[in-house]
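Per-residue structure
===
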Amino acid sequence: MLEIGVEGYHSIKLWLDYFPNAFIYGVDIKFASEGERFKIICADQSNLAALTTLVTQVPQMPFIIDDGSHVPAHQLLTFDVLFQSVLTPGGIYIIEDVETSYWRHGSVYGYPTSFGLGHPESCVEIFKSVVDYINAEFIFDKSTLPDLAISKETLSWIESIQFNQNCIIITKKTEETKLKYGYRSYRFLVSAGNVITIVTNCNRRAAQAILAAFGLAKYVSFIVTGSECSRPKPHPDPYERAIELHGTVASRVVVFEDHMTGLQSARSVHPSCIVGVRTAYDEKTLLAHGAHVTIADYCGAALEGLTLGIAPWAETLIEDIKRSAPWDIVSVKLDPSNMKGGFISDVLGAVIETTVGSFACVLKLENSSPTFLTEMARTLGLCERECYFYENLADTVNVRVPAFYCIIRNCDNIPIGILLENMFHSTAFDYKLNIELGRHNLHIAFGVINNLAKLHAKYSGVALEATFPGLKRHDDSRYLPGWQTFMEDRWEQFSSTWAPLLSASQLKHARSIISNFSEVQRKLSSGHLTLIHGDMKSPNLFYAVDHMFEPCFLDWQHVSIGKGVQDLLFFLIESFDFADIDIVLPIFKNYYYIQLCQRGVTDYTYDAYCLDFSYAIQHVPLFVCLWFGTVPADQLIDKNFPFFFIQKTFACLKYV
């Protein structure tokens, strides 16, 4: 057993006599000690870090008594940590001296106790509300339950509460009891003939074992695992496969999800309704990341309230397309399959029937989720910049880009996305997206570099800001000094996170660059400037496989005025493996410069070019390292991206 508060050894002696075969653990704020059958650990129960450490110092045990400070806030914090992590299932937890919850004036051990009868933050009052959580299965609108100073996970383990004079006794559910509650909570899904598929990123054997353990396997028609799809969540593939297995359409599907990656995956297929389950995130977070409604658990939930058919968002979007498109539209059919999307934009297909024919389109909508990535995307104006490119520059560039149809605007005339040609259905060439490049595909890479040189040569020396005022240089107030400030703020987190991967000298080098980052931005904003794509990589290219792999350039969100070599360097880092960097970098560097010269750029000396190459390495690649390298893992579309990108960028930094 464990007791909090053992001043003077009196209670330790009592428990040793009462339980002659037990080992007794105690916690006290003033001292530590141990003997043959007891151990006292010095810890402050008002300190979360101390309690978290305590969890690692004691085994699980069936009996815990809190006779510590008697301060209600300390009692609640200690209960939340130890009930969940130390008390064994089926165990008993006793909180003594809850009289302090009724004290309106006074103090205990120097802590004020200004509570009183009915005070919402007192220990007694909080546990009164816990009774409602124990019976939450019978509460239809669970949003009416109050937020408590006890975590949802801890609450889910409470079997019963007994209120006695000056103490509260709480019993923890056994594993079997918790299983029973979970089983009962899930049954509603099979009512009225609903068909269920489990869509998960865990492996099949694990999913089957979990369903069998909970007695739910008989209710599930299919299991779809991420490892058995071309791409796991957060990509749409698992949910697309589930819809295919049922022989239905997304508008007849309701998805239940509790994690950001799952919500991203579900959003990509645009089901009738996405229900967020509040196991890991609160309602605000789930709604912000794509859930239409939320539930605490499956108790009392009802599918009857989730209308199937064309979702309201789809109806609104179709009306926006009809209002914005340059055609007399007969019908619009939305199709999210095979689309490329991410933290900047949601991408879905649309087949638009008009009086003059049918158009296979791609609709890019700004991602509205309030994640760290999307907030940065809005700060950088990425969707705004791509809209500007297609409205003002797409017709002037001398490389292939998707046909631009229109900017989609909502009923308030605010741009919400762009409507483009669907390259998967192109009649001009047989296009393939994102060919894997490497030493065996250098001829394709050289074709991309040729096109980059062609693009950069055309706009070399052109007064772009005068002709296209929406284009910005890297020293614009949108980026300077903001980028350096951001990197300075993120450096400590980045360096501590990636120290196991990077050497001390690499980190020192990067830190010195960041200290002078504004100067790097200024260097890349003067001298030999041109139009740059800004996010050049194979995943942003369609290749015409029947036309010498000529590239078609996508995703112009990062378009700006800068040094053409920036596109070359980013293409190298993003499109090639770490092992290839040192081999292809000097080849590509010199080949690109030769192509520029052959296309009439004769006022750009090789020395100046090499200096720009060095500044390019220090600019966007390093910024991306600090950006994605400090993003919470559950917000990343590709959780492996920072690991590989950071290694490749720092491999290039040695050339600075």
In short: The mean pLDDT is 88. The two ends are 61 Å apart (CA to CA).
